[in-house]
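Protein in question quoted in full.
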Amino acid sequence: MNSSQAGPAARAAWLSCCNQSGPLLEPSEGPRAVQAVVLGVLSLLVLCGVLFLGGDLLLRAQGLTALLARERQASREAETGGSTGDDVS
């Protein structure tokens, strides 16, 4: 249905609902403040999560490094004989 087929009532309804010449409604500051607070809290949660998970990964990496160092030391001792010369055969 094009505009030539629309009756005067349909045109009036369209103009009344889509008229942009009225006063612009400004959003109140309340919702913006709530959005800012929610964004701040979520940002802090993400930051804390990254710090805790990163710290956990660092601790695990240090533990694995220490384990690897102990294994390498044990294998070096096994290669050199591992004895102090006090063995009596």
Observations:
- Residues 36-74 form one domain.
- The two ends are 109 Å apart (CA to CA).
- The CA atoms of residues 81 and 87 lie 11 Å apart.
- The first helix runs from residue 8 to 17.
